[in-house]
Amino acid sequence: MKKYLIPFLCYTLIPLILNPFLSEVITYTIRTIVLAGLLIYFYKQYNLKFRFSLLSFLVGILFFLVWLVLAPILPIGLSVYAPASMYAIIIKLLGFILIAPFIEELFVRDFLIRVCQGGRQWHLIQIGNFCWPSFIISVLFFGFSHSLWLAGLVTGVGFNLLLYKTKRMDTCIQAHMIVNFISAIYVLYTGQWMLW
Fold first, then answer.
1. SS3 113
2. What whole-number distance in Å separates Cα of residue 26 and Cα of residue 23?
3. pLDDT at 120
């Protein structure tokens, strides 16, 4: 359980604790380094096997378009990371494309979905097993953990369906990376910083 909880708690709490005292770029740097270390430390325990998935690639493109259309609608608590230097851009890209998809997907679709089904015996639940309560809770959690919550809710549904279809965590991580990668290119090109 700690392989999911510790990275996610660090992902969530580091900005809350450090932002009042440090610049956003320094906080983001610390969080990215800590999370990269935790992912490397726990990686073997996640038992991930990556194989390229065309479906994940297509789902990633589709949900980038979903974010593009739905992002301006009903945002709450919007925070904008507008980098002031090349370093700030690079560290944001590393965290946004390589770290966030792992942390979010492992916690929500590998851990939370199964905990909602199995309780203390969550580890016995097969990845990609469907039940309505876990589907609803995980979608709501994923959606409302994003300030652009409407796009987050719709994407949560899509990523859950991808998991149920493939029964593989790597497909969700790949799709999430594709969404974030295309979003990053779009943001850097247009300057619409709210999308990341």
1. helix
2. 5
3. 87
Beta-carbon contacts of residue 194 (< 8 Å; ≥ 6 apart): 71, 75, 78, 80, 148
Nearest to 176 by CA among 191, 196, 147, 150: 196
Portion of the chain with pLDDT greater than 70, in percent: 96
Task: Report pLDDT for 73.
Answer: 79
The pLDDT value given to residue 147:
84
Q: Where are the domains of the chain?
A: 53-195
78: pLDDT strictly greater than 70: no
The model's pTM is 0.93
CA 113 to each of CA 27, 63, 105, 119, 183: distance values in angstroms, whole numbers, following the listed order = 30, 20, 10, 10, 26
- Closest C-alpha to 113, from 101, 127, 102, 99: 127
Phi, psi of 176 (to 5 degrees): -65, -40
